[in-house]
UniProtKB/TrEMBL annotation:
The lineage of its organism: Bacteria, Pseudomonadati, Verrucomicrobiota, Verrucomicrobiia, Verrucomicrobiales. GO terms for cellular component: cytosol. The keyword Transferase applies. InterPro entries: Aminotrans_IV, Aminotrans_IV_CS, Aminotransferase-like, B_amino_transI, BCAT-like_C, BCAT-like_N, Class-IV_PLP-Dep_Aminotrnsfr. Pathway: Amino-acid biosynthesis; L-isoleucine biosynthesis; L-isoleucine from 2-oxobutanoate: step 4/4; Amino-acid biosynthesis; L-valine biosynthesis; L-valine from pyruvate: step 4/4; Amino-acid biosynthesis; L-leucine biosynthesis; L-leucine from 3-methyl-2-oxobutanoate: step 4/4. Acts on leucine, isoleucine and valine. Its cofactor is pyridoxal 5'-phosphate. This is Branched-chain-amino-acid aminotransferase.
Amino acid sequence: MKIWLDGELVDESQAKISVFDHGLLYGDGVFEGLRFYNRRIFRLEEHIRRLFDSAKAIVLEIPWTQEEICEFTRETVRANALDDGYVRLVVTRGSGELGLNPYLCPKPSMFIIASTIKLYPEEKYREGMALATCATRRPAPAALMPQVKSLNYLNNIMAKVEAIQAGALEGIMLNEQGYVAECTGDNVFVIRDGKMITPPVSDGALDGITRQVILELAPSLGIEVTEKSVTRYDLFTADEVFLTGSAAEVIPASSLDRRTIGSGSMGPWTEKFIAAFRELTRTTGTPVD
Ligand SMILES: Cc1ncc(COP(=O)(O)O)c(C=O)c1O
């Protein structure tokens, strides 16, 4: 596998980061995860834009332009001769002295991995997935801005552990007020009586690119969607719940905390969204070649 690292494509065995990199020492950095389908990178510009927004919010100056990073991403996919797959793009604060001070790290590091990812078993995309509510909360926006896709994922990882220990594959994370924020690595949509709601970003969700795609698709599919606070009660009593993420794509939820959601299987609206999403991924995106 070829990895893009700080300006060059190197063999996986040569792709190394310093133990003094603050990305490793303190989780000081930002990242993106995006997919490519049929040699076209889905929503590439949006992901790179979010990367720059995340970096700006944490005072991390990326020494390349957005256009250059789009180009490096295409180059990395080409170098790995994959038609379909997943890109992980990471910008770290770079090497510096021990101690938190990011101003002592002269140069950020960036690497791009083009590989594959499989988050959930195939049958869950038809049958739906069990969810569990996690005890670990999303950090308050004043603690860690939820829009920033940073290298601080420990909250989400602990929440994921709780979900798995409860026998579920994904967990619902609440914010400090007890409202649903999102899942550990996906956004959440709730449908009842032909209307759809999703938590606003201000309730602690990442401003997901796939979430945005669903918001765009909703009118053309003939369903009204509102960004408003969501409670566990809304999920328990929903007709349908589905999750969205670049890695997860669009996947139905069948239960929450062992309470069946709707029919307990994929609902008709979810099926429509999955079909429309797949159509978009098949027919749009930035060509790799
Ligand atoms: C915490 C969290 N929420 C939501 C998402 C989904 O966002 P996107 O659709 O941009 O991949 C992700 C994906 O990386 C995530 O890590």
